[in-house]
Amino acid sequence: MHTEHFDYNLLSVFDAMLRERSVTRAASQLGLTQSAMSHALNRLRDYFQDPLFVKTTRGMTPTIKAEALAETILEVMTAMRTRVLPQASFEPASMNRTFTLCMTDMGELVFLPPLMEKLRSVAPHCKLRTLQVPIPQIEALLASGDADLLLGSVQTAPESLFQQQLFMHGFVTIVSTRNKEVGDTLTQEQFESMPQVAVSLAGRSSPTYDSAFERHGLRRNIYLHTPHFLTIPLLMDREPQLIATVPEELANVFSRYGIVRVVKPPVTLPPYALSQYWHPRFHHDPAIVWLRQLVKQTFDTYPNIEA
């Protein structure tokens, strides 16, 4: 192999194919036509004398040689993004990029609207994409660049990730507006006897909830575990006897639609932090640094913002 004959722009083509496993999506990420992307991929194949990516039921899968090259090429691309490109001027107003955020459906409902509004005002050509993935997959997703930030409260976040606290969550209990048994307050007897909906994002109930209830000797009559926050008010509308304890910001959004109302739980639950998390590989990436700053600024005055 002769390096003087190699077009180093092809490294970005290899990198995009590793991320997207699709010629069409990789072309879109690089701003190329599909024809130009196919031509660049063929040049890579000719140079390395290997197909590099072959079509399978899971998309364009890397060959053994491509997998052997992947780590080195990713290191080169990371160095370019974090050490070389930051030296150039960075203008959010002219940036054209899609940022990918990992968050729950609660995050989409409560936190995404103000962030979208902020992004449109300072970086009108940028777009957002959201993902909801299991916690064990988060580190690899952030390391690969397939996701830029994780927004949420993660009790078991990988230690390798950087994090920054945004604000503290409080908790309240919500009941159906059709529930006539509960007044402005919820007694301990009502709380323990009424069937409850619990959100279990990781397949188990929240340790924040459990430890607080246990310290006060409270037992919950959990009727349903669900990984989705947004189903709760709809279920309560159909089954008015159900109650749920959720973050206060989410409860306030729900109550605007007239399906549920907010009451205080019989005990005071400790708040917990909502943070943003990112991978060390992209700690100095200028676009990700800017995105983190934007997120922090957006929620500096939370919850005193319109969601």
Automatic annotation (TrEMBL):
HTH lysR-type domain span: 6-63
Molecular function GO terms recorded: DNA binding; DNA-binding transcription factor activity
Superkingdom classification of source: Bacteria
Keyword flag Transcription regulation: yes
UniProt keyword terms in alphabetical order: DNA-binding, Transcription, Transcription regulation
Coiled coil keyword on record: no
InterPro entries listed in its UniProt record: LysR-type_TF (IPR050389), LysR_HTH_N (IPR000847), LysR_subst-bd (IPR005119), WH-like_DNA-bd_sf (IPR036388), WH_DNA-bd_sf (IPR036390)
Protein family membership: Belongs to the LysR transcriptional regulatory family.
Descriptive protein name: LysR family transcriptional regulator
Organism name: Cupriavidus lacunae
